[in-house]
Task: inverse folding
């Protein structure tokens, strides 16, 4: 049974949603943040760890005793490649290997890798131009994750919004966007990522996460 969860990037928009929903589900959450005051969510089941993912010993301490790890790490340096964040994921993987912790859920982007062709024409342009550095970092981190011995799931999300939870999303490895610029709320993304803690459907797989934008039957 999984009850202890480490959330990386917990002070970002999606990270906050993951922390909030995880606490609602009764999980004991360790929130890994760069600055302690950046996450003010008082809760008896919340522990905040301040540190840098580029610090191997700090990451190892945060990973100790956990049942699963979720990464919602954001961009360290907008519009630039950030080797420190890539090294951070390497540190997480090593710490999980060392402590025989297997379940790792990583938030990526549908504009990365083979999923790019199905992202929607406008989002494809965004991925190749203003987000090319972020995409490049995701590609490097995904390579590290795929080469690991972890039970990983790489979640390929579209453009993220601050909208409410809707549950109106579809998942699958081969699904394509139905609009030029697909977007999904961080609340919906958090809901799906948390469901993957115990759902084995996408272990060592990379599902895409896309909104429903037309009427019809609800199916995968």
Result:
């Amino acid at each position: 049974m999984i009850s202890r969860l480490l959330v990386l990037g917990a002070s970002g928009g999606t990270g906050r949603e993951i922390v909030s929903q995880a606490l609602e589900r009764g999980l004991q959450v360790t929130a890994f943040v760069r600055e302690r005051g950046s996450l003010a969510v008082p809760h008896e089941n919340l522990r905040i760890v301040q540190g840098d993912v580029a610090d191997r010993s700090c990451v190892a301490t945060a990973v100790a005793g956990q049942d699963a790890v979720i990464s919602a790490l954001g961009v360290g340096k907008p519009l630039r490649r950030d080797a420190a964040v890539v090294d951070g994921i390497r540190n997480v993987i090593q710490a999980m290997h060392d402590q025989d912790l297997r379940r790792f859920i990583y938030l990526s982007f549908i504009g990365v890798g083979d999923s790019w062709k199905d992202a929607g024409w406008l989002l494809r342009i965004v991925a190749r131009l203003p987000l090319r550095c972020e995409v490049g970092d995701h590609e490097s981190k995904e390579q590290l994750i795929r080469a690991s011995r972890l039970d990983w799931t790489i979640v390929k999300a579209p453009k993220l919004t601050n909208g409410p939870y809707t549950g109106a999303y579809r998942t699958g490895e081969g699904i394509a966007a139905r609009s030029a610029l697909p977007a999904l709320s961080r609340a919906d993304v958090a809901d799906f990522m948390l469901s993957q803690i115990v759902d084995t459907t996408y272990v060592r797989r990379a599902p895409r996460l896309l909104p429903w934008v037309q009427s019809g039957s609800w199916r995968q």
